[in-house]
Structures are given as structure tokens and as C-alpha cells.
Amino acid sequence: MLTDEVGSRVVETWFKAISFSRWDADTKTAYVSAPNAFVRDWVSSQYQGLLKTHLSRLLNTNVSLTFIDESKTAVQRVEKDKPSISRMPKAPDAQNSRNQISPRYGFDSYIVGEHNSVAVAAAQAVAEKPGALYNPFFITGGSGMGKTHLLQAIGNQIKHTHPQAKVVYQSGDRFVHEFVNAIRYGKIKNFEERYKDADVLLVDDIQLLSHKEQTQEAFFHIFSTLYEKGKQIIFASDVLPDQIEGLSERLKSRLNGSLIADIQPPSVATKVAIVQNKALLQKMPIRDDVASFIATRASSNVRELEGLLIRVLAFAALTHQVLTVDLAHKVLARTTIETRQQALLDLPQVASCVAKHFSTSIAELRSTKRQKNLVDARHVAMYFMKKHTENSLRDIAAYWCRKDHTTVIHAIAKVEKLRLLDTILDQKMAAIERELHHR
What we know:
Elements: H1 2-6, H2 8-13, E1 19-24, E2 29-34, H3 37-59, E3 64-69, E4 74-78, H4 117-128, E5 137-141, H5 147-161, E6 167-171, H6 172-184, H7 188-196, E7 200-204, H8 213-228, E8 232-237, H9 249-256, E9 259-263, H10 268-281, H11 288-296, H12 302-319, H13 325-331, H14 337-343, H15 347-357, H16 362-365, H17 372-388, H18 393-399, H19 406-421, H20 423-437
Parallel strand pairs: 2-3, 5-8, 5-9, 6-7, 7-8
Antiparallel strand pairs: 1-2, 3-4
Helix pairs in contact: 4-5, 6-7, 10-11, 10-12, 15-17, 15-20, 17-19, 18-19, 19-20
């Protein structure tokens, strides 16, 4: 169950390092032992919700957790309804910062290279004089290139130099969710006021407004109001404005009027600097040769770089070994670029292949449209994503902007049954399978 939800790497690295210590029936508290503070802090900050859910189901009661650091016999209490505060930086996931700007995202921790120097220079200029220069400002680049970091660095800098400024950060999917709830509960006025009163509006993943006409209409009016007031508006997106399908022409025109700064994949030297910087942030500096090794084992995705670094640091801490290239090679042996290229695909590759065979686009697939052809294609894509990638069910659900991984489980089961009954679908899936094998 856990392996399906979070992936085998997480289970091997983190869950096998902890153990169930004891159960206090009076306080309904489960005590979980970790070998050191490093593991304790990471598991409590990243996976305590998941652990509480499964333990609560297993014990048929609402469980609280207490994590025990075996190395110091220190106890860290995880409050029932509040997320724990970890000494370790959290993974760079925009989902963790949907409603607020994280203080750990700053210009000082952002590694600058040829691939992003123009975007960083423009971002710093915007932060220095919000509303006066480069308004609107549009940051674009592939997934994991550091767009969220740069977007929030602007927000943090403005909050520091202009303490009275009202800075509002939101992701595209959360904006849609808020808008739908505002209509449902008759709070559309409150919704509009929150955004129209902003001095600075930062919108991450603006492409997620695609094919949502009513939401786009509301956003257009908010955009226009802020722009006319001279307020600073900043966007981040995986693609250029012209490439966002399902976006109204007038909104697309507004976005195209922005200063557009593109973040390209970093060079190897920059990736090495990124690895070293993130290790320092975790107060675990590493040697140059180890940083270089890790950098060459990852793609240009900064999140992937950090994931590999965390695995290596965790293993070294758990086994009390000095971190060397040989040790890093041992830990990352199963995740080298060569292995992934030979056996694994990423989620967009699978989606692209399925979209082609169903004569649609990725944007259409990821939309909320419920036409039978699109629904079938989404389910087929989920099926192949589980089969041909290392991503967990939660990762796949997140790609489709679904909160619950059970959606993916349902889709896979449905496709397996339908394939036995529908000859045409079976033939189409066989063709997709052949193409995926040759990618």
C-alpha cells in the first residue's frame, strides 16, 4: 500500500528506517522511533499525515504521533491538527506553499548561471521597484527549473523592503478551487476583494486555468483591476502564453504583453553548484567530487537533483558512513540516467503518446472535460503511467490535478476490465505499448 502511494524509493529510504515503538491506549498516541534527528525531522515533516492516516485505519481510532530520536532520546510531539515544524528544509514542492510564501525561497539561495541570468536580473528589478518595471512579468521554463523559487523570492524581497505591501501568492489550481467554492458558498465578493486589494499578485502555474472559462473571466477582471491601479503582477508557467491551450484570446493577449523571461536547463557546472548549495542549506556540506557525481546522475530538473542529494545524505546519516563518491554510487546505482532512459519514461512522455493515439492534446487530457473519448484517454494514460514510470500513485494523481490517488486506482482497474471487452481499445493500447517500448 505505502509503496504504491509514495513509491519504493521513499519506502526503502525512510519508512524502513523507522519502527513502531509503542502504543499508549489512554492518550491514543503511537510512538515512532527514528535512528537520528535527521530521519525523525524529515519523516515527521513529510510523511506524518500519511502515517497518521494508515495507523488510524489500522487501530480504528484517531491517532496522534510522537517521534522519538533514538540517538538522543529526544521526543518531538506532533500535534494532532497542526503540521510539524522541521529543522530541515522541505522539498521544493509548490504544493507546500499554495497559500503563503515560504521564507526559505530567497535570491541569496538561488544559484545563478547562464541558463537563468536574464530571468533573475529581471526578477530582482521587479522586486526592487514593484509596479514600476516589467509589469506584468512572466517566468517560463520546464518543470523543476526553479520557477517557484524565483517567484517566491520576488515576494519575499518585496515583503522585506515594503513591509506594508499586501503580497498575495497563489497557484493556478488553488485559484480555480477558491473560485468554485466562492460561487458554491455565495462568497464571490470576498474572493474578488482578496485579490483586487493586493499590491503584488504572484500566480504560479497559470497554465492550470486552461479550459476553465468562468475562472478565466474572473481572473481577467482581477488582472485588469490590478493593472489599472499599477499593481505588480507576476506569473510562472511551464509553457509560453501562446502555447497555453484553452485560454481566452484576451487573457492570452494580456499575458503576451508581459516581459517574458525564460529559464533554460542548467549546465553541469551550475548543477554542481546547486547540489553544493542545497547540501549547505541542510548543514551537511559535501565534497566537490561527490557533488559532481550527483549532478551527473540527474537530469536538469532541480527537484530531481535535490531528491538524489537527500537520498545520499540520508543513507550516509543512517549508516554513519563518510559520504564519498563510492558511497553515492552505491546509493544511486538504481537511479542513473542510463537506467532511467533504458527502462523508464516520465509522465509527460506517456501523456503525449496517449494523446496522439486518441487524437487529442495533453492540455485537453489534463482539462476537466468529461467527454467519453477524453475520459477513456485519461484512464489509459494513468494505466501506462503506473506501468512504465517509477512515479507513485500520488505522483500520477498530482499530474492530473487530482487530490486523491484512489482516482488512479479506479482508472487502472476500469481500463483492465474494459480492455477485455473492447477490441478496438485493446488494439489501440497495444499500439501505444509498442511505441512506449521504443521511446
